[in-house]
Design a protein that fits this description.
This protein is mainly alpha-helical. The protein has helices at 18-39, 46-49, 53-66, 72-99, 111-129, 135-159, 161-164, 167-186, 190-214. The protein is globular, with a radius of gyration of 20 Å.
């Protein structure tokens, strides 16, 4: 006998409550910092764990899970959330590193703590703009992500590759270029393509300049 298969679609999964999303996202922030501390002691992962690009990508991904709505208020909320997430990562990293027996100091004047503010603001903007109906804003978001990766990769090749090797930084630049090209290809208009490419190129130079000027 042939079994009877129901043609009715499965009921949709219930949406994740806002409180659950918030707790998961902000709980993942310190965890990312903890994993970074341990990752720095793993040979193949040490350079990746010592770079800022992955933290930026993680922040954007977590903010996408948070699903902040578009709009002026939503954009501001996403930007503030990005800053909070990055600082929570710093706290998690600081706590895990000290518990592992390696002295680490967390202060308001720390370079990475300070850089967490503009980086968090940018991550929040990217997480909102990447879901925009306007292709120009989506292109700008892709260009911004690419700029962070390409700019940091170029800085590392210039300043730290002698001690860390070049593979990690070449891969980071390649990923950044891939993100930029994807943003350009998926753009729906010539204007959006120009915005994506311009943001990526100018932003990469700006990120590199900030690193070089601050000497970190």
């Amino acid at each position: 006998m042939t079994p009877i298969v129901s043609s009715r679609p499965a009921p949709p999964l219930p949406p994740v409550p806002v409180a659950a999303r918030v707790s998961m996202v902000f709980g993942a922030g310190p965890l990312a910092g903890v994993l970074t501390s341990f990752g720095q002691s793993v040979g193949p992962l040490s350079s990746v764990a010592n770079s800022a690009g992955p933290w930026f990508l993680v922040t954007v991904a977590l903010l996408l899970v948070l699903r902040v709505r578009a709009g002026r208020g939503g954009l501001a909320l996403a930007m503030v959330s990005g800053v909070v997430l990055l600082e929570l990562m710093h706290i998690g990293y600081w706590a895990a590193t000290n518990l592992r027996g390696y002295p680490d100091f967390l202060s308001l004047t720390n370079f990475w703590v300070l850089m967490g503010v503009p980086a968090g603001v940018l991550a929040g903007a990217v997480a909102v703009l990447v879901r925009s109906q306007d292709g120009r804003w989506r292109g700008a978001a892709a260009g911004a992500v690419a700029a962070v990766l390409i700019g940091e990769g170029m800085r590392a090749l210039l300043q730290v590759a002698a001690t860390t090797g070049v593979v990690t930084w070449i891969v980071e630049i390649a990923v950044g270029v891939g993100v930029l090209l994807t943003g350009v290809v998926l753009a729906r208009s010539p204007g959006a393509r120009v915005v994506a490419l311009g943001t990526g190129v100018v932003g990469s130079v700006a990120v590199l300049a900030v690193y070089l000027l601050l000497g970190s």
